Amino acid sequence: MGAYAVRRVFMLLPVLFGMSLLVFSIIYLIPGNPAQIILGQRATAEAIAEVEKQLGLDQPWHIQYVDYIGSLLQGDLGTSIKTDVPISQEIFPYLAATVELTIVAMVIAIFIGVNAGIISAWFHNSWFDYTAMVFALIGVSMPIFWLGLMEQYIFSVQLDWLPSTGRYEASSVIDPITHLYLVDTLIQGNMEQFTDVAKHLVLPGIALATIPMAIIARMTRSSMLEVMRSDYIRTARAKGLTNFWVVYKHSLKNAVIPVLTVIGLQTGLLLGGAILTETIFGWPGIGRYIYDAIQYRDYPVIQSGILLIATIFVFINVIVDLLYALIDPRIDYK
Amino acid sequence: MGKQQDILHVQGLRTSFFTDNGIVPAVDDINFSIHKGEILGIVGESGCGKSVTSLSIMGLLPQAGKIVGGEIFFQGESLTKATEKRMRSIRGNEIAMIFQEPMTSLNPLFKIGNQLTEAIHTHQSCSKEKARKRNIEMLELVGLPRAEQLLNDYPHQLSGGMRQRVMIAMSMICEPQLLIADEPTTALDVTIQKQILQLMKELNRKLHTSIMMITHDLGVVAEVCDRVVVMYAGKIVEEAPVRTLFKHALHPYTKGLLASVPDIRSKKDRLQSIPGNVPKPGSIDKGCRFAERCEHAMERCFVEDPPLYKMETNQQVRCFLYDTETKKEASHETTIT
């Protein structure tokens, strides 16, 4: 297992290399000259040359790339053109906001999705099964921005139960420690703020959970149906085990691998910043951050943001791979 | 046939499958008993209802299957009327079952030790250490070497024969009164087959467990069974002590089966076979189900359903050839010609 993990992580290197190369080449793909963008339309040729020299843009591309990688490895993600703040400092709160929302959304999606899938499979072709699968189909095909707007209209505007935008009430001030505000308020023992933060998470959390939940439910159902037909499930029942143990121990563990794959992919997608959802709910997440950077042509932010998201995505996949091997002893460590 | 010394008594059992294409009777009015300590063979081609019979006893029929008539008595207690909770306490504890496919019958994701312990803990409360000792004891009893290490192995690390031994150990771990073995050796190669059969016979002798041996292989029957029930298309066509059956089979179907067993001493090029195919369940609504394939079929066979005739040789047979009336006519004919 240990050797397998090491090997799997090593296999990341070429992927990360390719990613960095792609991201690096963004500078050359963006129309116009970065120095020009920084200085504005009326900059003189000398000023532009001066800035290019500062940024190292006068060097040949491979030297620029080596410099870029070198600074990345030192944790230097560049400096935002817009704010002139190092990106590594600036990006963290945005990333934390997205991570917090993703975790909440995925917990909802996994809990409801997996259980709905199991019950649907167990009561195959029952009314529960049909209802759940119709909802799953609706969930998969629902435009999320529309769902978000409807949630806001019903629960914020009409019923006034939940706040519609932001991470917490504008009037309160939260001292950031981890920037995961649920954690921060809990550490500080401020329950009032904790419930406020939790309330703000509900609507965007549900909106973001919808698609993963539907996909997870469908995947769990089909995977469970297949497993429940297998011989070892019959053996488990012939031993006199209760249905609960047959389902949650013997079936679920065997059925979970394709479900894990889906969970990993969906988590990666959500962490990539759901730009639409974050915009609707005024969520200061990484999707919004990059979206703003694109509007401003803040190319170092775009580069680093994309690189960060891609890296997270790849690492989640590695974690999923390691989980496979942890669950199934037959998955070879070669 | 007193119910007292019978461990299992099946009475008029009918099991049907409710499919989109209508109701299919898979087992149609069968009666048999298993005595204490006996090994009963149930023989027949695939689709004759042997496995459905065993799953009916275990209460493990697939969703579409339902017992629509008759009763099953286990030590005098009706299983068809038992609650699901009672059935669970019987399964694995008093009636255990092993299956045809050792390769897929063990859960691939749990260690052997875990699966064995689970079988104990489902029915008995005992300490982990005691369960472990019992596991090792059982693995040794079924002839597996290095039992202690095996507990930490996963099923995929074992061969088919070893897995079937583990299955047997698992099924016997609570010392059940009755073991239902559904083609336990079909998927194994011949030498392993022989070992597994011997093992089962040994366990039967040592622990006095009754065994219901379901098979399509007459060789298996000859090797281990005391008594045999022959099934054809959901019905019992013949029942006999094993020696009697091999020496003196009565039903044309049984005779056909025996004739199609290859004989190493025979110089014939071709094996005998019974012409035609097993009728689809539910496709014959009157007459003997074997009539179309039977060389002795009379007019009557296509119209009337033959009853089980009790013979003096402790045999029962479902064939008009053994109707005393028919017999008289037949002997009459032969004397004339």
UniProtKB/TrEMBL annotation, chain A:
Broad class of the protein's primary localization: membrane
Positions of the ABC transmembrane type-1 domain: 95-324
Q: Tell me which domain of life the UniProt entry assigns to the organism this sequence originates from.
A: Bacteria
List locations, semicolon-separated.
Answer: Cell membrane
Q: Which residues cross the membrane?
A: 9-30, 101-123, 130-149, 201-220, 255-281, 301-327
Keywords, sorted A to Z: Cell membrane, Membrane, Transmembrane, Transmembrane helix, Transport
Q: Which Pfam families match?
A: BPD_transp_1 (PF00528), BPD_transp_1_N (PF19300)
Q: Which PROSITE patterns match?
A: ABC_TM1
Topology relative to the membrane, per the entry? Multi-pass membrane protein
Family note: Belongs to the binding-protein-dependent transport system permease family.
Q: What is this protein called?
A: ABC transporter permease
Automatic annotation (TrEMBL), chain B:
Keywords noted in UniProt = ATP-binding, Cell membrane, Membrane, Nucleotide-binding, Transport
In terms of SUPFAM superfamilies, this protein maps to: P-loop containing nucleoside triphosphate hydrolases
Which coarse location class describes where this protein primarily resides? membrane
Q: Which GO terms describe its molecular function?
A: ATP binding
Highest rank taxon of the organism: Bacteria
Fetch the SMART domains from UniProt: AAA
Q: Where is the ABC transporter domain?
A: 8-258
Under the heading CDD domains, the entry gives: ABC_NikE_OppD_transporters
Membrane disposition = Peripheral membrane protein
Cellular location(s) = Cell membrane
Q: Which InterPro entries does UniProt cross-reference here?
A: AAA+_ATPase (IPR003593), ABC_Ni/Peptide_Import (IPR050388), ABC_transporter-like_ATP-bd (IPR003439), ABC_transporter-like_CS (IPR017871), Oligopep_ABC_C (IPR013563), P-loop_NTPase (IPR027417)
A Pfam family recorded for this sequence: ABC_tran
Similarity section: Belongs to the ABC transporter superfamily.
This protein is called what?
ABC transporter ATP-binding protein
Its taxonomic path starts at:
Bacteria, Bacillati, Bacillota, Bacilli, Bacillales
